[in-house]
Amino acid sequence: MSGYWWILLLLSGVVAWWLPRHGVAARLSRWRDVRHRVRVEDALKHMLAAERRGVLATAESVAGAVGIGASASTSLIEEIESEDLLEIRANALSLTPSGREYALQVVRAHRLWERYLDDETDLPLTAIHGAADRAEHRLTVDEADRLDAQLGHPPTDPHGDPIPTTEGRIAPFPGVPLTDYPMGEDAEVTHLEDEPPGVFETIVKLGLARGTRLRVTERRPGLVRMEIDGRTVSLPSVAASNVHVGQVREVPEPVAGLIPLARLARGQDGEVIGIDDSIRGLTRRRLLDLGVTPGTVIRPELEPLFGRPRAFRIRQTLVALRDEQAEGILVRPLRERTLSLVADDERAVS
Question: When comparing pLDDT for 278 and 197, which is higher?
Answer without folding.
Answer: 197
